[in-house]
Structure formats: C-alpha cells, structure tokens
Amino acid sequence: MENRIVSFNWRAELENIAEVDSIGNDFILLDNPIITPSLNHPFKVDVTIAIICTKGTMKGTTNLKPHTSKAPCFIIILSDQILQNEYVSEDFEGFFVVMSKRFTEDLFRDAQDRFSLLRSVQDTASFTLNEQEMEAMMSYYTMMKRAIGAKDNPYRMEMARHLTKAFFYGIGFYIHKKAEGKTKTKHELFVETFLGHVKAHYKEQRGVEFYADKMCLTPKYLSKVIKENSGLSANDWVDNYVVLEAKALLKSTGMTIQQISDELNFPSQSFFGKYFKRLVGMPPSEYKGK
Fold first, then answer.
1. DSSP H stretches of helix in the chain
2. pLDDT tens by residue, 152-175
3. Reduced to 3 states, what is the DSSP secondary structure of residue 201?
4. How many percent of the chain have pLDDT more than 70?
5. Percentage of residues in the chain having pLDDT higher than 90
6. Residues 72 and 216 in one domain
7. Where residue 18 sits, what CATH number does that domain have?
C-alpha cells in the first residue's frame, strides 16, 4: 500500500494508511510517502518535519526564502513556518519524521539549548549530504523504527526523545561544518539584520521608520541599501511578510477575515481588505474561496 502525506492536511491523509510507525500523533515515521504537489498557495504547518531525501528534487519557499532540495539531502521544516511548494519531481523519495509541537518542545526544556539548535536550522531549509552523512541519517531513522516499533516497551517515548535530541545535535554540527569558510559580506549581514527585525515585528509594525530606528539609520538610507542589495524595497519586504501570513491564515486555518485582521493588527477589517486587495489583486474573501 502506498503511503501518502499532504503537508497541509497530513492528519487526514494518515487516517487512510493501514500501517504507520508512530507514537500517537506526537511522533510519526513514514517510508517513501508520496508528496502531493497540488498545494501551490502558502500554508502553515503545525508540526516539525524532517525529510531524509534519497532521490528526486523539491523546489519551493520557506518564509519567503527560495530553496531547491536535490537528493541526496536533508530537509527540515519547522513548526509554524510558511511554505509554498513549487515543484516536486515524480521520482522524489525520502524518509519522513513528523514531530508534534509538544514533542519538540519537550525535547529541549532548556531555553538556550532550544534557541541554539533551532537557530541552526531555521534559515537552512535543506542541505546536501555526503555518503557518510547519509549513512548517519539512515542509522538514526533505523534506530527510531526499531524503538517505536516495540509497542510493548513502556519506555519507547523516552527512547524516541533521547534519539531525536541526539539527532538534532548532529544536524546542528553538520550545518556548522558546512557554514565554515563562508564569510558573509557587510551588505548581506545588513539585509539579514533588517529581515530579522521584520520577521519579529511585521504583525505590529508596517512602517519603514520603525525598522530604520531599530537599526539607528534614516528611513531613506535603509530603503536605499535594502533595495540595492536585495532587489526589493524595505516597504516591499514588510508587505510581503504581512501578505504571506495573511494568505497562509486564509487558506490553512478556520479563522474568519475579522480574526485575521485582528491577528495582523489592522485597525479594521475594511482596512485589511483594502490593503490585501491592493497587493494581491483580489479581496481576502475571494482569495479564501479560490
């Protein structure tokens, strides 16, 4: 029987699978599931998904950052990230580890540990694996299958936690190794800092003046440097983050337009509707119903 998983509605898909290696909905392993590429709109996931890709290619964006993942590689999707699939090759194969928020939060109770490890992967949607790294990844996956397959073992959840924690430490190490020797330019760091502020505050602050003040710059200078080094103006970046969040909430939640307007701190639903239509070309209600 073929396993199928759709990132947006994976729980519904799992109900149709006869055999799944899992511990409830907290930890799930899937061998070579079929990716349905029909979701071409932004959507949020409420789980962390780790994919050991052994064959094929996947293209898309994660929080507006484009990426191309080509086997052999490792792909990491964090809970609450906004994704948009653009292409999945027909020959795509991989091994999926799906972890609930509760599971990942329990992994790293120490805030510093959690921050350090998640920071290592949040800006790296995927990275290439060499033969030794692929072997290490598959060894972990095999150990996990054995651990959670022993359903009569009362300690299998604890085993899953310890093995996964070790796995994340290994991921952080691999990413650190691959980053060695890659020095970012002054302008790259400048754009990175700006986007970090936007990611943290776009729901509350949409004016360039706020971000310029955070970076101790004039709005004019900030806009000039961001446009020259990213291809988009500072205003465009802020608008893109707001619209991306709005699209994801419209498509992947049951929130009303009023609730989304409130979530994004617009003064009214009418103001939100005009803002969305100006940037997307249609009102939120029409986009939601497409």
1. 10-14, 101-107, 111-122, 131-149, 156-179, 186-201, 208-214, 219-230, 234-252, 257-263, 269-280, 284-289
2. 888 898 899 888 888 877 776 666
3. helix
4. 81
5. 35
6. no
7. 2.60.120
58 and 119 co-located in one domain: yes
Q: How far apart are CA 272 and CA 260, in angstroms?
A: 9
Same-domain check for residues 22 and 130: yes
22 and 139 assigned to the same domain: yes
Residues spanned by the domain of 197 = 186-289
Per the CB < 8 A criterion, the answer to whether 47 and 65 are in contact is no
Q: Is 149 exposed, middle or buried (0-12, 13-18, 19+ CB in 10 A)?
A: exposed
If 0-12 CB within 10 Å is exposed, 13-18 middle and 19+ buried, where does residue 121 land?
buried
Say if residue 133 is in the same domain as residue 45. yes
List the structure tokens of 282: 């249609």
DSSP helix/strand/coil, 117: helix
Rounded-to-integer distance, Cα 103 and Cα 187, Å? 38
